[in-house]
Amino acid sequence: MELFGQIMIMAVGAIFINNFVFAKILGICPYLGVSKKLDSALGMGLAVTFVMTMASAFTWLIQTYLLVPFGIEYLQTIAFILTIASLVQFVEMVIQKNAPALYKSLGVFLPLISTNCAVLGVAILNLTADNGLSYNFGFSILNGLFSGIGFTVALILMAGIREKLEYAELPDSMKGMPIALIIAGSMALAFLGFSGLKF
Amino acid sequence: MSAMKEFTKGFLKENPVFVLVLGMCPTLAVTSSVENALGMGLSVTFVLFFSNMLISMIKGIVPPKIRIPMFIVVIATFVTIVDLTMAAFLPPLHKSLGLFIPLIVVNCIILGRAEAFASKNSVLKSIMDGLGMGLGFTFALVVLGTIRELLGTGRILDFPILPQAYQDSPMLVAILAPGAFITLGFILAVINLLKKRGR
């Protein structure tokens, strides 16, 4: 029961209080780039969630069983980015082979994910979370999953607003990126309200 | 002469933040103060300078199919150098930039310049391009950092600028995440406006 409570606290924390986009400001490039249509936003969100969960698992294993025993933690950045890049490539191949329909909807987003800072960010944060104490294997995976869901929520909310925005009358110089950023700012302001949710 | 042109284009005409809208995560996340903005900008400039130089040197021997992983390894190496050097000599700055130092690896500006410029041009031109783009990025970060620090604390680099009454109750939101989005949104809108006036 206590474990369940811990997991719930983690979920609310990762999705609302420390939302990757609005509180930690990670993964902004895909957030602004792929939030123009609702269905592509959903596709991108799911792909990122999947890769973040997988990456959390693999980078935790690499850190614990490869980098720490050999005393080469300073290679963390290089090791992690290579792990993520090859993981994304691998996931792309597997999906292409086994689920062509899914590949069609996710395919274009997958290569973009290896340079998404949210993925590398969650991998590093898992190992330095809680003031330097790292999460254990299970919690790392869960943190990756919940952070990915938080990213998806932010992306879908934004896409919904931007679809409506197409029809809004705006000054010419505000169209496109400026108004998107200002809306993102207002949403971040709203999400700031969740920081009052303390357990 | 043409090398000089590669250097100056990064400041205004092809400024990576204001015109190309690349590298959003560090731009938004670390500009809560001028000091952090300068530290981030100069770290990115260092990495861009050396990665562009090395990549333009090895462009003849890298097989085209695996060029992206090769570029990422080169970039990750220099980022690790910055990370460790900063941790040794500037621990307070390293602490406040935190996660965003290793995340320079996935900054799209650096991989973008490697792929779009350094892998096709001579060493001298690539160095100038890297330096120009890096300093243009630093310039954009400092502009954003100045506005946010001034509004959020009433000080710049800890020198009091605005009256004491403002400093006692500043617009705190400017140095939080929402302020980053909104400030950049308005800056981009002003740039769009100026562009239209100029035409």
SSE layout and pairings?
The complex is a heterodimer of chains A (199) and B (199).
Chain A lengths: L1 H16 L10 H6 L4 H33 L5 H23 L1 H7 L3 H4 L3 H12 L8 H29 L11 H16 L7
Helix pairs in contact in A: 1-8, 3-4, 3-7, 3-8, 4-5, 7-8
Chain B lengths: L1 H7 L15 H6 L4 H25 L8 H23 L1 H7 L10 H11 L4 H31 L1 E2 L2 E2 L3 H5 L8 H22 L1
Antiparallel strand pairs in B: 1-2
Can you walk through the features of this model?
The complex is a heterodimer of chains A (199) and B (199). Chain A has 199 residues and is mainly α. Chain A has one domain (24-168). Helix content of chain A is 73%, strand content 0%. In chain A, helix 3 (38-70) crosses helix 4, helix 3 (38-70) crosses helix 7 and helix 4 (76-98) crosses helix 5. The longest helix of chain A has 33 residues, at 38-70. Chain A is globular. The mean pLDDT of chain A is 85. Chain B has a two-stranded antiparallel ribbon. Chain B has 199 residues and is mostly helical. The longest helix of chain B is centred in the last third of the chain and has 31 residues, at 123-153. In chain B, helix 3 (34-58) packs parallel to helix 6 and helix 4 (67-89) crosses helix 5 (91-97). Chain B has one domain (2-198). Chains A and B meet through helix 2, helix 4, helix 7 and helix 9 of A and helix 2, helix 4 and helix 9 of B.
Concise summary:
Chain A has helices at 2-17, 28-33, 38-70, 76-98, 100-106, 110-113, 117-128, 137-165, 177-192. Chain A is mostly helical.
- Termini separation of chain A comes to 16 Å
Using the CA coordinates, give the radius of gyration of chain B: 18 Å
Q: Tell me the quaternary state.
A: heterodimer
Identify the overall geometry of chain B.
globular
Considering DSSP H and I runs of 4 or more, what fraction of the residues of chain A is helical? Answer: over 70%
Spans of chain A of at least 5 consecutive residues whose pLDDT stays below 50 are none
Give the ordered list of helices and strands of chain A: HHHHHHHHH
